[in-house]
Amino acid sequence: DIKPGDTLIEATSGNTGIALAMVAAMKGYKMILVMPENQTIERRQTMKAFGAELILTSQEGSMELARDIALKMQNEGKGFVLDQFSNLDNPRAHYEGTGPEIWRDTKGRITHFISSMGTTGTIVGTSQFLKEKNKAIQIIG
After folding, report:
1. Which end of the chain lies in a sparser environment, N or C, as judged by fewer CB atoms within 10 Å?
2. Does residue 130 sit in helix, strand or coil?
3. Judging by beta carbons within 10 Å of its beta carbon (0-12, 13-18, 19+), is residue 12 exposed, middle or buried?
4. Going by C-beta distance under 8 Å and a sequence separation of 6 or more, which residues neighbour residue 92?
5. In Å, what is the CA distance from 7 to each residue of 12, 31, 60, 77, 103?
6. Are 115 and 123 in contact (CB under 8 A)?
7. What contacts 24+ positions apart, CB below 8 Å, involve 36-45?
């Protein structure tokens, strides 16, 4: 269990980091975000504006390096890694939310679902729901 004053750590390429920085500020957590240095300055500034500490990694290491550094920090007792990449709540949220919303709003008339491949939570959860409704739906990521 986390409580106000605890330190949270996450590897991010931007959007999740911004959301986490905002929520951490509201809840009283210290937020450390580890991200490749080639991410936009606007994302970095937004995270810092919410009070997050940023650790920039070389762009050659990509997100894998950022995640490795975050996990190393956790192993050193520097905080708790939320780990969006293996957190089962990520695809579950899209299975329970995004998938049903798309199915409802299209009245089931959907032939393809196209999604980006960040953490893969969106494509995994949404496509699982949609495929249960119609096995013929094409998934593209």
Report:
1. N
2. helix
3. buried
4. 125
5. 16, 6, 27, 10, 38
6. yes
7. 36/61, 36/62, 36/63, 36/65, 36/66, 39/13, 39/14, 40/14, 43/14, 43/17, 43/18
Residue 13 has pLDDT above 90, yes or no: no
Spatial distance between the Cα atoms of 87 and 9, rounded to a whole number of angstroms = 14
Could you say which of 3.60.140.10, 1.10.10.10, 3.30.565.10, 3.40.50.1100 is the CATH number of the domain covering 7-81? 3.40.50.1100
d(Cα 96, Cα 131) in Å, to the nearest integer? Answer: 13
Place of tokens 């504006």: 49
**What residue type is 17 in one-letter code?**
G
Annotated domain spans of the chain? 7-81, 90-140
Rg for the chain (alpha carbons), in Å? 17
Residues in the chain: 141
Q: Which tokens belong to 25? A: 């500020």
Query: Mind listing the pLDDT tens digit for each residue in 119-141?
Result: 889 999 999 999 999 999 999 99
